[in-house]
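lol ok so funny story. i was supposed to be doing the assay writeup but got distracted and ended up predicting the structure for this chain instead. priorities right. anyway since i did it might as well share w the group, maybe its usefull for someone
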Amino acid sequence: MARRVLVCASLLTIQCVFFVTAGETWAVVVAGSRYFYNYRHQADVCRAYHILRRNGVADDRVILMSYDDAATAPDNPVPGTLFNEPSPDGRPGWDVRHNCDIDYSGRDVTAEHFLAVLRGNATAAGGGPVLRSTAEDRVFVYFADHGAPGLIAMPVGEPVYADDFNSALKFMAEQRMFAEMALYVEACESGSMFEGLLPEHDKIWAITAANPDESSWGTYCDAEDTVNGVDIGTCLGDLFSINWMEDSDLPAEFHTETLDMQFSTVKTETTLSHVMFYGDRSLNARPITEFQGVPEFPSLQGRLGAKGGAERRNRPGVAVDSRDVKLHTLRRLQRRSEAAGDVSGAAAYAAAARAEETHRAAADRAFAAIAGAALAAVAAAPLPPLAELACHKRAHRGVTAACGPYSDYSLKHARVVAVLCESGYSADAIIAAADAACAAHMPTSLFSGETAIA
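and the output, tada:
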C-alpha cells in the first residue's frame, strides 16, 4: 500500500519533505569484530548508517550492531572518534562515530541476536529492536567482519554459519518479511556464505567482497591512515566497503545507479579480490536508492559533515590482507611510539607483535598437522559449493574446543575444516586430529592470539 511519509534529515538545518512510496526501507548493519586493530569494521558500519539516515531511512528502521570499542580504545589517538577515510588535502576529517546510533553493542553483538533480528524475534534478540518489515518493504543488510569458508565471525560467541544465515533468509522469504532484499557482505571467503546456497528466485540480491577462496582487504593503511594531521595507526576501512560507500556518497551516482551498476563499479575498483554476485538477477535494475535510502527522498548532497562535490575525494592506495591487519597495526603503533620518543610504548607494541608472530607460526603448524600431508594439494584447490554444512558446524565447534577460539589470523585455517568435511571425513575424525595437533603445537597461551595491547 502506498504511504504518504514525512521524512526529515539534518545537516546544519532541519529539512523535511512529504513524498509517496510503496513500502518502507529497513536495514540491518553489523560489524562483527572487536579491538582497535579492527577499527575499520566499526568505522565502515557507522559510515553505512549515515548513508542510510542521510537518504531518508528512519532511525527506528536502521538496526546497527557494533561492539563499539575502537573509538574508546587506549590506542585511538583521537578518543571517541572513528574515521573511515583520510583527509590528506587539509579538509576536516569526517568523524563517522558522531551521531552513529548503535542498538546492540559489547557482548550483545552475537550470532544469536543477529539471526533473531533478521527473523523479527525480539525475545531471542534480548528485547532489542528487530525487523518488523512486511511483504511491501525493502530490506538492506550490510555485514563487515572476518570470515572463512561457511562462516562469518562475531565478536562474542559462535560465528554466523552459512546454513543458519541462509535458513534465516528462507524464513524471512516464507514469512513475507520483504518484497526485495539486498545484502552486502565484507569478509574473507564471503562468497562461500551464498554459493550454491542462496536461491536465484527469492527476490534476494547479494554481493560479497571476495569469492569463496580468498581474503578481503583492509585499506587506507600506513601513510593513508592520516586524518586531520594525525596518524590513526591502523587501516581506516575495507576495500570493498570503501568502494561501495564512496560510490553511494556521490549524489549523481546515488540517484541514478541501479544495484547492478553499483556492483559493476565496485567489482572494477576492488582489484585485490573478486567481488561476487549471488541470488536473484531480476533485481539488477532496481535503484540503489530503494535499499540504501527512501525512493524520491531529496537526500542531502554528499557525506554528512564533509564535502558535497561530484567527485570522489580519495582513492584507496595502500591495502593489507585482512588476515594481516593485526600484525600490521602492532608494527604501525610501534613505529608511532618510536617517533614520539615513547620507549616503553614501543617496547610493548614490539612484544605484542612478537607474540602475534608466535601465535601465527603455532597456528600454521597445528592446522598443517590437522590436515595432514595427503590433503595439501586438496587444501590449495578451489572449494566446491559447501554441502556438508552439519559436518562443518560440528567440526568447527570441536576444533575451537581443542585449539581455542579462532583469531583473525587463524581463521584462514578454517578452510582445512571445510576441505576435510567436503572430502568425506567425519566431524569426529577432524576433532580427534585437532585434539592431538593443538595439544602438541598450540599451548593454551597461544590459543586465540589476543593480547592486552591493541
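Residues 1-20, 301-310 have pLDDT under 50 and may be disordered. The chain is about 35% helix and 15% strand.
back to the writeup now i swear
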